[in-house]
Protein 1
Amino acid sequence: MAAISMRLPVARKEVPESAGSEKHLVVPGDVITADTGYMRGHGTYVEDDKLIASVAGVVERVNKLVYVKALNTRYNGEVGDIVVGRITEVQQKRWKVETNSRLDSVLLLSSMNLPGGELRRRSAEDELAMRDYLQEGDLISAEVQSVFSDGAVSLHTRSLKYGKLGQGVLVQVSPSLVKRQKTHFHDLPCGASVILGNNGFIWIYPTPEQKDEEAGGFTTNLEPVPLSDREVISRLRNCIVALVTEKLMLFDTSILYCYEASLPHQIKDILKPEVMEEIVLETRQRLLDLEG
Amino acid sequence: MASVVLSEAEKLYIVHGVQEDLRVDGRGCEDYRCAEVETDIVSNTSGSARVKLGHTDILVGVKAEMGTPKLEKPDEGYLEFFVDCSANATPEFEGRGGEELGTEIANTFYRVFSSENCIDLKSLCINPREHCWVLYVDVLLLECGGNLFDAISLAVKAALFNTKIPKVRVLEIEEGSKEIELSDDPYDCIRLSVDEVPCIITLSKIGYRHVVDATLEEEACSLASLLISVTSKGALTCMKKVGKGSLDPESIFEMMETGRRVGKSLHTSLQKVLDEEESLGTTRQKVGFLG
C-alpha cells in the first residue's frame, strides 16, 4: 500500500553546547582577534589591524598561525587523498574529472593503468581508444598525485584497487565530514563495501566475491545485484544521509554503529526526522562510550 | 529540467532495483518521500504555501486582484499561473534558461485547471461582465530534486486552501454606476473550497515497472513518464505523456490505476496536514525559511 507521510515543518532545535569543547565558531565578518602577533592563514583577512574571518567555520590555532577551517566548502586537494570522481570530459590525452572542487580535476592518460597491468608508453591507438576505457558519466576511484599551482588536482589510478567503479550507489556529502584515516576502502561486516572519498563522494557497492587481481576496474560486473545486498546498500545509504544531516563525522565505525542502530526500523523510515535523530543519538552514545 | 549524469552501471543498478520494488533509498515503487507543507508564510499575498519533497523545494503565492471577466465566461473569475524557475535551483536556470521549463509547467497547470469543477469560479464573480476576482498563482522553484509537477501541484492546492479573498459588496448609486465597498473587518474573507482541486501524479517508467516520486537519478534512468491529474475522489481529469521513450497502452492503463490509487492517498494526507495546521490557528509557530 502506498505510504505517503506529510507533516508540518518543525523549527530546528538548538544544539546544546557539549561540555569540554570550546569551539570558536565564526561567520564571515567576525573578528577573530585584535592581536597583531599572529600569522594569518586560510579563511582570514586583515582590516584595521584586526584579523577577520572570511568563511564560516571553526578557528584553529597552530603556534602562531591562525586559520579558519570552513565547514561547508569545496574539496581542496592534498597529495595522497583518495577521491571518487565522475568523468565530465574526454580530451586529447586526459580526462576531466568532477570531484566537487573549484576546478575540474585532471586524469592524464599516462596516469591510468592499462588493462592487464601492462607497462608501456601510451601510443596513438591508446589515445583513440580513450573513450573505450572511460566515458562521460563514469565513476572512478583515484588517488591525488599532485596539485597544480591554481589548485586543480591531478589524479592517478596506478594501482589495481583504483579504477572504474561498477554498480552501486553514490552519496554526495560535504568534504569536511569525511574523517581522514589510514584507509578509505572499507569492507563492512554487514555485507557491503564503501569507499569514503576525501572529496565527499561516498561510494557504496556490493562486496565483490573474489578479488579480481588482473581486472583493475576495467570489466564492469553487469549482473543484477541480489536483493539481500540491495537492502544492505540502501540501509547504508540512508544511514550515511542521517549521519550527514546531523553533522556527524563519517568513518567506518560511525557508519557501522549507525547501521546497527537502524536495524529495528524499516529502511525507508530511516529518513524520517524523528527516526534519524534517534538513530544518530544512539550512534553518538556508542562512539562516546568507545572513546571514554 | 535539471538532470544528473550517471554511469551505465549506476543506471543498471537503479533499473534492477525498481524491478524488485526496492529503490535506492529503500522506498517501494508507490512510496513518496517525506514531505513538509507549510502555509501562510508570505505576508503580502492572499495565500501562500511551501512544500519540501525530499530535495525539491517549491514556494507558491496566490494574489487576488480585481479584473474584468473573460468574454466567453462573463460570470466567472479565473486563475493565472506563472512559474519562475529561479537560478537558485540549478545553474542551468540562470538568465532565460528556466523559461522553457516554466512555460511548460504553467501550460500544464492551465490544462489541469481548465476542467469544469475543480474550482468554483462563479464564487469569484463580483459583477457579471464587469468585475471579478482574478487569482494570480505564482510558483517559485527554489530547489530541483526531481518530481517537480507533483510538488508544485501540492503547493498550489495548499496555497489555494490558504487563500483569503476579502469580502466585497456592490453598491448601486444613482445613474446606474456601481461602487465596490470593501468590508471594514480585515478578517472578513471568503475561503475557497479545494475539495475538487486535482493533484498531479508523475509516474516514471523505469525498465518494466513504473515509480512514483522519482528522484533526479531515477528520472535520468526513465525514458518516458506519464503525468496524470487526479481529484480527491480518484477521478482522472487530465493526462500528459513526457519523455522521448514510448509507452505501450497496457502499461498506460496500469500507470493510470496506480496513479489513481496513489492520488487518493496523497489527497487524504495533504488534507490531514492542512486541517491540522488550520486547527493550530494563531498558536502555530511559523517556521518559514529561517527555522
Note: The mean pLDDT of chain B is 89.
Protein 2
Amino acid sequence: MTDDASNYKVLQVDSQFLNDFESEMMFKIKGSNKIPVVLCTEDKTYSIKSVGTSNTVYFLSSNMDDDHLIVQTCVDHVLEMERTNPKLHTLKYILQNDELDLDKANTIEQLEELIQASSHEIRVELDKLNAICVLEKWFLLAEPLKQEIMNQFIKYCRSRGLDLNNLDYLSVLPNINIDAPDLIVKKCVENHCIPVDGDIVKINPEKYCILMAKSILQEKEKWSKDTFMIKWEFLVGESFEITLEMLSGLIAVDENTNTLKYLPWYELPVNHRDRFEILFATKQEWNERDIIPFVADLVQPGVTAADLLTKYARVVIDENGQKKVNKRVI
Amino acid sequence: VVVVRNGNHTEWFSLEFQGEIVSRGAPVDGLHIGNLRFEQGTPIMELGNHKLTGQIVELDKPLLVLRKDETSMQLENQETSWVSKGLVTKKILFRDRPKIRLNN
C-alpha cells in the first residue's frame, strides 16, 4: 500500500452527479461536527452519510491487465450521497441589516460559505426573498423601508402623470426623499420594476401589489376580508389589479368568518411537524390548493407536497369533490 | 472543502475481501500481498497458502476516489483541497471461504 488511508475519501456517485462534475470540474463539501455535512455542485445539494464496511476493500489504480497492481489505499467506509433540499432557512436572518451597513453585509461567495446550499439555489432564494445587491453585497431591506421607498416613488410618478409601464426611473429617483443611501433606494426601485428598454422600466405589478398588501396586513393580526380588499385597492390605485391569489403563501383566509391573517410561509418553522401545528392552529380545515404554498419549501427530491400532507395531515374529499386538509388525529 | 476534477478520470477498481487481511509483523508499505489471475474470466487470488475464488461485480453506483491535494497540504493557513483520482465501476469480490493451496 502506497498511501495513508486518511488521505483518501471514497464517494458513491450517480450518473447525474458525474455529468455535472464533468462539466463543472469541481464541487464543495460543507459542514462540520455541528452542522450537517452537504455536498454542493453548481445547482444541487446532496446530503452525505458515512457507511462503514467490515470487509477489507482495497482500491487499485492500475489496469487489471498490468503485471503489478498497486494498492493505493484501503478504506473502511464509503460516503453515500442523496439529493436533498438546500438549507436556506437561515438566509433571511443573515441578510437582515437594518443599519444598511455594507461591512456587515455578505457577498455571494460569503453567503455560499455560510449556507448549506448550492450557488444557484442561493441565488434563487435571494430572488424569492426580494433581496437586493449593492456593490456585490446582499441585503434584505426591512419591509417598512421598501414600502416607504415605493410609496414615494409611485406617488411622485402619479403626481407628474408618468406612465407606470414606461418609466425613465433614473430621472424620478432624485425626487425621492428617503433617509437611506441613494444606491439602496435605486436598487430597491429596480427590484420592483421590469426592464423594458435601457433605463426605461415598468412597475412590476405583482411585486408592488404584494408589497402594499404586506404594509396593510402588518398593521394588525386579523382583517375582515372586505375591509382589507378595499384598503388594498385604495393603496395600490387604479393602475393595478389586485387578487387574493397574489398573496398565496402569505395569508390564511377563513371562509367561515370572512377574515384573513398574515402568515408568511418563510416565517413558519422549518420542522415539518411544527409547521403543520401552526397551520392547523390558524385554520382547522384547508383547501388543498391553499395549504400547498405554505409547505412548498419543504418539498424535496423524493418527497412531494402530497407525501407531506399524507404524513402530517388528513386529506378528505368533500361532497363537491374538493380535497380538504385537516389535522391528523393521532 | 473544495474538490477539483483532475483531468479525465482514470479507471480504478477495487478488491473486496470478507474479513481482514493482516500482515504478521512485516511493514505494509511495499508488501507483496498476493497474486491475482483470471481463469476463464474468474478472478483467483493467491494469498500466502490460501486460494480465493472471486467474481467481477459491476457496481450499481460508481465510486469516485478522492485524495487530498498534496500542494494544498503543504501550504500553511490554507484549507486542504481534494482532487478526484479515479472512478471505480467494478470490483472483484471474494466472498467464499479461502481454500488451502496444496503445493504441487
Note: Chain B touches chain A at residues 1-5, 10-21, 28-29, 31, 33, 36, 61-68, 82, 84-88, 91 (CB under 8 Å).
